[in-house]
Amino acid sequence: MSIPVLEIxxxxxxxxTRSTEVPAVMDFSMxxxxxxxxxLVGESGCGKSTVALAIMNYLGGNxxxxxxxxxxxxxxxxxxxxxxxxxxxxxxxxxIYQEPMASLNPAMRISSQLIEVPILxxxxxxxxxxxRSIDMLExxxxxxxxxxxxxxxxxxxxxxxxxxxIAMALLSKPSLLLLDEPTxxxxxxxxAGIINLVKNLSKEIGTSMLFVSHxxxxxxxxxxxxxxxxxxxxxxxxxxxxxxxxxxxxxxQGLLRSIPLPGKNKYxxxxxxxxxxxxxxxxxxxxxxxxPRCPYFEKELCSVNEVQMQAINSKKLxxxxxxxxxxxxxxxxxxxxxxxxxxxxxxxxxxxxxxxKDYDVAANVVFGGKKKGTIKANVDLNFDAxxxxxxxxVGESGCGKSTFAxxxxxxxxxxxxxxxxxxxxxxxxxxxxxDKKTVSAIQMVFQNxxxxxxxxxxxxxxxxxxxxxxxxxxxxxxxxxxxxxxxxLVKLPREFEKRMPRxxxxxxKQRIGIARAFAGSPKIxxxxxxxxxxxxxxxxxxxELLIDIQEKFDTTMLFISHDLxxxxxxxxxxxxxxxxxxxxxxxxxxxxxxPYHPYTEALLSAVPIADPDIKKRQILLEGALPSxxxxxxxxxxxxxxxxxxxxxxxxxxxxIQKLKNGHTISCHIDIKExxxxxxxxxx
Amino acid sequence: MEQISSxxxxxxxxxxxxxxxxxLFITFSALFIWRKNLGVLGHLCNSPIGLxxxxxxxxxxxxxxxxxxxxxxxxxxxxxxxxxxPPGTINAELGIPYIFGTDTLGRDLFSRMIYxxxxxxxxxxxxxxxxxxxxxxxxLPSGYFGGRSDxxxxxxxNLVLAxxxxxxxxxxxxxxxRETMLPNIMxxxxxxxxxxxxxxxxxxxxxxxxxxxxxxxxIIILVGSWLYSGLVFNADPLGLVQIxxxxxxxxxxxxxxxxxxxxxxxxxxxxDIKTRDYVAAAMTRGEGPFFIMIWEIxxxxxxxxxxDSCLRVGYVTILLGTLGFFGLGMExxxxxxxxxxxxxxxxxxxxxxxxxxxxxxxxxxxxxxxLLADGLREESAKD
Amino acid sequence: xxxFILKRLFTLFLTMLCLSFIVFSLVTxxxxxxxxxxxxxxxxxxxxxxxxxxxxxxxxxxxxxQYSEWLGNAxxxxxxxxxxxxxxxxxxxxxxxWHTGILMFWVLILTIPISLLIGVISGMREGSxxxxxxxxxxxxxxxxxxxxxxxxxxxxxSSWLKLFKGVAKAGNITFENFxxxxxxxxxxxxxxIARMTRASMVEVMNAQYIRTARLKGMSFISVVFKHALRNxxxxxxxxxxxxxxxxxxxxxxxxxxxxxxxxxxxxxxxADQNDIDVTLACGVVAVILVLTTQLISxxxxxxxxxxxRFS
Lengths: 683, 383, 311
Fold this sequence. Notes:
The complex is a heterotrimer.
Chain A: E1 6-16, E2 21-32, E3 37-41, H1 48-55, E4 63-72, E5 75-76, H2 82-88, E6 93-96, H3 100-103, H4 110-122, H5 126-139, H6 145-149, H7 158-170, E7 176-180, H8 188-205, E8 208-213, H9 216-222, E9 225-230, E10 233-239, H10 240-245, H11 250-257, H12 299-302, E11 310-313, E12 318-320, E13 348-364, E14 368-386, E15 390-394, H13 401-409, E16 416-421, E17 424-425, H14 436-441, E18 442-445, H15 449-452, H16 459-469, H17 476-489, H18 506-517, E19 524-528, H19 536-553, E20 556-561, H20 564-570, E21 573-578, E22 581-587, H21 588-591, H22 598-606, E23 615-616, E24 656-658, E25 664-666, H23 671-675, E26 681-682
Parallel strand pairs in A: 3-8, 3-9, 6-7, 7-8, 15-20, 15-21, 18-19, 19-20
Antiparallel strand pairs in A: 1-2, 1-4, 4-5, 9-10, 10-12, 11-12, 13-14, 13-16, 16-17, 21-22, 22-25, 23-26, 24-25
Helix pairs in contact in A: 4-5, 5-7, 7-8, 8-22, 16-17, 18-19
Chain B: H1 6-16, H2 18-33, H3 40-43, H4 48-65, H5 67-70, E1 89-91, E2 96-98, H6 109-145, H7 147-161, H8 165-172, H9 175-179, H10 182-206, H11 210-232, H12 245-273, H13 277-284, H14 289-297, H15 302-325, H16 337-344, H17 356-382
Antiparallel strand pairs in B: 1-2
Chain C: H1 2-27, H2 30-40, H3 47-56, H4 63-75, E1 81-82, E2 87-88, H5 89-124, H6 129-143, H7 146-160, H8 175-205, H9 208-215, H10 220-232, H11 234-242, H12 244-257, H13 263-272, H14 276-304, H15 306-309
Antiparallel strand pairs in C: 1-2
């Protein structure tokens, strides 16, 4: 057997703080062979990025490798001098990072950032390096490489920036490529393109990969091996299909069960959240780290001795760190507790009628100037929301979904059109002018849990203030009582009323946010990407909670999201938006099966799926999202549409084709043509 | 003329300050015991630089408080026989040593330095508080609403900031200015802000609870106008609140010079914080703009504001010293540090130590504040 | 870019107008004018005579009229007549400004490289011993105002060590003459600029693109030179320019302290001696200097920062 490209044995990494040593990685082992694509998966804080940086031996001032070895092609990297490390970095081992904008130097042209890599490592001339860079830019599918070479990073889109970072990493043909959440900051359709590119290029160049991600679906699509990390250690590793089909660790199982799949809705495959939360490094329990959160936990077996890795299937390199491997029935199915067939009523609660919202912006923010541009954030939106239904609004960044939420909540005024709620057009009434009843009837759950609660006030006081504003209770005592009930409702202990937001985890904060939104028994709750900033295991719990409360109160929920798997799971009906316009509306079933709007089709195909049994058709979108300041003529999607009809789509606004049961598609292509397409997903 | 040795000088110095040492000891013990419950102040225990800063600042605070116990002479007590004496000279009649020597009128430099801290530690923080109230009251709405009034206010702030400070002082604290109504008008405007701010705070919180709102309004207006009449018109009906016209002039000028800086800081912080989701959450539950500004935004701006306030008190101390150095504003015999420097600096060729008490006092106090600010900044960044 | 500069120029012009008006109205307040009258005509004038004198000299007209008259003259280069020096203001102010210019030149030539160097070195490795030492040094120097450090230097270097004179003669460009005042100003300003540079450098060194560059295999030193410096020096550039009002204040203090008969000394003595036209001219010149540097700072910032230049 050849020497592995990378071999990590019993690695431990600690960060030194003022008072203590915080172990971030403990006893971590992994092997990456020639041509391997190894996926490293785990929740935030489990130490996966630390592993990547430790391989580069770049842990900052206070990080230190405290034990174990990292061998690159058989050589122990800890014996390398600083000079030897510098020689390896960038030429043998290269890295791609999460934030493309932040990883490029804002004050340098792309060209000088690219050519310095081969000049540094291969001592070639500037001209040669320039030529090589141009070639590489072509390889990463960037149009007009000469122009891009002379650009500054801020002049490029996020997807283009990430392609540059990839080009930079591959310029010296490294034998190992580390990717640290390379697409987390990007839109789904852009992500799909990047993933495809990385997969093909690494094969072409013959680079091994270490792909660090929290997204199991992405790992499944890109890698042939997987390592699952939990709280600083490996819990399960092996060939990817083996691990996905025969998982032998409760954490891996838990992770997979907490991800919604785009083929299943809430009635067919309920999500099962992992209870509790990741222990802080210095509060790790004795024995199995996952013990306190494990549904199979047994005190005598799990919390006495350190659990060692055990071979499950040596041929497929499958190992797991669980002391009950042979005691658990791994194939037992979980049953839904939800009653199938709860149908929302047909009474229309909210009706959006030709709603448009424009923003005036100075064309050039810094230099001022008279030219004013208009961003058409929402163009002619038409749809209804019924009592107690979940209506999902889907689209990528800049599609206008958040602007719509602002108009609905009265944070912005509609430019034209109507928002009818309880026989009143509230589109032009800002929140300050709305009466108490309307204000408490429409509430919101915000995206970022770290931003949704005011860090200066205690949790209890924030809820009580909300109750006061929406007119619940007449004395402080009554409101306190109601606040306690709300904490019960979101399944948090009542003692939390005294806590400050910084003492809460992300999921707990989001629960408080939900409690606050439901304080005044609202008729409509707008949930703006309520789980996208949370870890998968927590996501499931928050989604379930949101659905339960909604059903309890018969609230209408507007669920804004870019994640179609989640949408499939929660929504009754879906509105797909692109650049401020509605592309498609319909029930969830209608949206997730043909005929598709070409954009919906691409969106669906871009969703990474964590199920090895589902095959999907791949549709890659070319180019970047156009600027909403200067949207394309005709159909706004025509610049990226794989089936655009030139001469028609790029000049004439598409007609709205009405199909049965309220399904509408806004497209020039005939409905018969669209219906011929296969389902994106196939079992 | 009898001298005491340098050992005895320092011995007397430490002995005279015993009340200060005791107070410092108690404060620091309390700080260490309850550091877990004191927030940022407790974190300070981890920063040696910050602790040194706090020590120096508190030294002067306690020095000012216990000045009567610490000082050996009265600050204005002159002696024709003991003019410009070096440190350690004993006053034969009283048997008390001038441990830091005397100035050109035979006044004890040590005692003047201690009493000088009272003036500096009263005016500098008080002026900063008023400057802060002005800056916050204008900066919050300016950053929150933006628009035309923001443009105008920012323009005015830049106008003041474009003045070299010294020119501003020569224009605002000159003897001629004091003959006009200008200082009173300026003070009159500035002292309106604390009242307005207090009303804003109460209104925003209790706008829907009239049984709390109306009594609080009455109390604020009564107390406010009482203080206002004393401070601005020197016409306190009770005779309790009064301020020397010189000091009022200086006070107004210092507030005028520092509030634009606070304004800009608060405005910037407000523009940053107002984009947070919790502000949007407050709006969606129907909170008015004043509630959002004061209860949602302001508390979250406190970190940078606390750090800045330490730096600003130091800066104002330097400004006061500058005024004294140019002989502006203060009474000529005032023992404030700047004036002391001005009174003594011509004699450094004769007695070099004569300027040391005032200069070192001023520099150490400012240094303490800057170190404290640095420690606070570092500790709050670590959270 | 041109629109931007024109806009800035307009704001500058407006600011200048407002500031000169403020200076004008504060200098020509009634008590100052009365003093002027007594000084110019007759020390023992009765109140009535004073009023007549003011009337006669046009000081009783509305403020705006007086201001526009003064502005009109100033724009044609006539700043009036110095009652103290008994010659036209132009003959007084410009030579003094030249003396101060020389002083400032030496100050800037020392301050900028030293403070940038300190800032970069200490911000390069945040938290290192060098960083801590240099940071404390910068804090100390910014805590000691010029009127304190100047006096301390005089005591140590002039009184005890007899290295320099305690006064500095204007126009005499020698090491012995200039060292004390320049040292005093430089030391105070170094601390301030160095702290700004350090903060900016620390921020840049923690940026991800520095990590990118390091993981490309570049050595620490070449990352600092090629990637960090050009980003880190944008902010201090603005700071140096905005430092100008401070620098000017420092110059006034130092000139007064060392009896250096420059612009600052003139400003102070003119104000003390109620020399109205000179005070006015000095005030306006100071304001113009400050605003010009602000303009340069704005344009320079936009020019240095490609994110603004190409947006």
